[in-house]
Design brief:
The protein has 91 residues and is mostly helical. It is built from three helices and no strands. It has helices at 10-22, 27-55, 67-75.
């Protein structure tokens, strides 16, 4: 676990303490929550960027190569267990 010192202006420190108190959190828990939310925003932003790049590349979207394998899979008889693995027998 990272332990660090944060130097922020007094007005931001007061805001931080008040915001944490309003949520019944410690300052540490509140900052952790903010960072987790920011990390999720960043993950979503990167995902959107990657999908936008993918959409520009017609060759990457080519799926015809997979049709024979998909046809084989569709042609297989259904599992008697509804797609679930067979139950294990006890020894």
């Amino acid at each position: 676990m990272l332990n660090t010192t944060l130097r922020i202006p007094d007005d931001l420190g007061a805001f931080l303490q008040e915001a944490a108190r309003d949520r019944s959190l410690s300052v540490n828990a509140f900052l952790t929550l903010l960072l987790e939310e920011k990390r999720e925003e960043e993950r979503r932003r990167r995902l959107a960027r990657d999908w936008a790049e993918y959409a520009k590349d017609p060759q990457a979207q080519e799926v015809e190569y997979a049709w024979p394998a998909q046809a084989d899979l569709v042609a297989e008889p259904p599992s008697p267990y509804g797609g679930k693995p067979a139950p294990r027998r006890r020894k």
